[in-house]
Amino acid sequence: MKKFNYFDCHADTLTCLNEEQDTLHKNHGNLDLDRADAFTKKYTQIFALWSIRKEMPENPEEKFLRLYERACTLLENERERMVWCRNGKEMEAAHQEGKAAAFLSVEDLSIMGDLGERLGDLGIRFAMLTWNYENIYGAGSPADQSGGLTDPGKNMVEKLLAQGIMMDISHLSDAGSEDIFSMTDRPVMASHSNVRDIYHKPRNLKKLQIQELILRKGLIGMNLFSEFVGENPELSDILRHMDYILNMGGEDVLALGCDLDGTSNRFPKGFTGVESIPCLREMMEKAGFGKKLTDKIFFENARNFILQNI
Q: Which H, E and C letters describe 178-197, residue by residue?
């Protein structure tokens, strides 16, 4: 198989593996290094730390630290193949050594409790304030699109921006996203969100959000969760979402955020996990994207985003 560069902006793998049986190099989930190594040259993966807040104790710090330490251990066990990175320079160094690069994000900052302000100290470089419900910081997009950031949410954004943390609006309400846009002129990302005009789901981005992300030279990762792609979708349906962003001038911001291990195996027909990524690439090239544009979507756009902002 011909190998290529690959950057995925979102996977839940580190928090979904069976603690007794699975490893990052080989497991029964949607993503492991053995399968990724089969087709990748340079490879970067952003792994999300995630849990459901209502399933955590009133003071979640201890449980979050166990989640975090488990992720750290999984990455440390793969240090000969994958390097946990904190910035673009470390990512480039990992690739030069022939290793994959990993970054950490947090999906729903409320699961950290009082540790949210320590995000940078913990080596986490990306932050989503909410998941699919309302929390102390704001509202998730399925819960209330009109719910903006709370005062604690705005205070936390200011603290995270001061640490150089990248704000990620996937899962955040429309009003919350507008609040973030109003608080900073820095680039912002949507790590795993598709196009609402193509498939009307609250988790997908509306046109004005896409315009703002393009204007800011942000990043938009295409999500392969079938619920956000289309009704009974084929894998080719994700190309409609890509075309929409490209037609808006998003050639430099379009990327992949496949949501592996975060979909309960609900993918478009023709996709089963990371082993199907080469099929997506072949489909894009045959559909007329061409090698140069496909390379940008698969790797270069996200790599440049990291180098310029992290």
A: HHHHHHCCCCCEECCCCECC
Dump pLDDT digits (tens) for 86-106.
Answer: 999 999 999 999 999 999 999
CA torsion 206→209→214→216, rounded to 10°? -170
Query: In angstroms, rounded to a whole number, what is the distance separating the alpha carbons of residues 25 and 3?
Result: 18
Q: Which of 23, 221, 57, 242 is nearest to 128 (CA)?
A: 221
Residue 218 backbone dihedrals phi, psi, to 5 degrees: -85, -145
pTM of the model: 0.98
How many other CB atoms are found less than 10 A from the CB of residue 164?
A: 14
- Rounded to 5 degrees, φ, ψ at 32 are -150, 165
pLDDT tens figures, 15-73: 998 777 899 999 999 999 999 999 999 999 999 999 998 888 889 999 999 999 999 99
Mean pLDDT score, 115-128: 97
4-309 homologous superfamily: Metal-dependent hydrolases (3.20.20.140)
Q: Do you know the residue count of the chain?
A: 310
Q: Domain spans of the chain?
A: 4-309
Tokens 């150089």 belong to 164
Yes or no: say if 81 and 38 are a contact pair by the CB < 8 Å rule: no
